[in-house]
Write a structure and sequence with these properties.
The structure is a single chain. The protein is elongated. The protein contains 8 helices and no strands. It is mostly helical.
């Protein structure tokens, strides 16, 4: 391994943060598979739009969007789980590749981040577009007192967005550090 310097610290930080996204997705997938029924109820109530706060349900004009077919709830939920599995695999693979590439050349380390960028992007698509846009706006999840996943989705998108930006930065290259040192000399 290369000597421990700022570049190595940045590379390890990127690997660890990528691991946290993959590790989180691992826990979510595990929970969704081992406690399928609890989280299935969440999906069912959001898609059926049957748990809106009474004062909002009385004035809502969007209930025609509700999906009441149980098979569709299962398809949507399995789709969420499969998407979370993609996030898990891509981020964990990338974290492992980043750790292995910490002491290697710049091009090798840049390649090691590829699957982490994919995983974080898929995570943002799921938790922003899937939960906040489709669940929150189309199915009116924000009107739901009990089954509202928007605050959690916002929290996840904020964290994962920061990880994606940090991971994408090219502040982890030796060539850049050498050029900066030359300019400051």
């Amino acid at each position: 391994m290369a000597r421990f310097d700022t570049i190595v610290a940045l590379r390890l930080a990127k690997a660890l943060l990528t691991f946290t996204v993959g590790g989180f997705a691992l826990l979510v997938v595990f929970g969704n598979l081992t406690d399928y029924g609890t989280n299935f109820e969440f999906v069912r109530h959001v898609l059926a739009m049957d748990a809106q706060k009474p004062e909002l349900a009385a004035v809502s004009q969007i209930n025609y969007r509700a999906i009441s077919w149980t098979w569709a709830h299962h398809v949507a939920y399995v789709g969420v789980i499969l998407t979370e599995a993609v996030i898990m695999v891509t981020c964990l693979v990338s974290a492992w590749q980043q750790v292995r590439a910490v002491g290697r050349d710049d091009a090798a380390f840049q390649r090691s981040k590829r699957w982490g960028v994919v995983g974080c992007t898929v995570a943002l698509l799921l938790w922003f577009f899937g939960f906040q846009a489709i669940g929150g706006e189309w199915f009116g999840m924000w009107m739901n007192g009990t089954w509202n996943g928007i605050p959690d989705a916002v929290r996840l998108c904020t964290y994962i967005g920061i990880v994606l930006v940090f991971l994408s930065l090219r502040n982890d290259t030796r060539d850049e550090a050498r050029n900066e040192a030359r300019q400051n000399a």
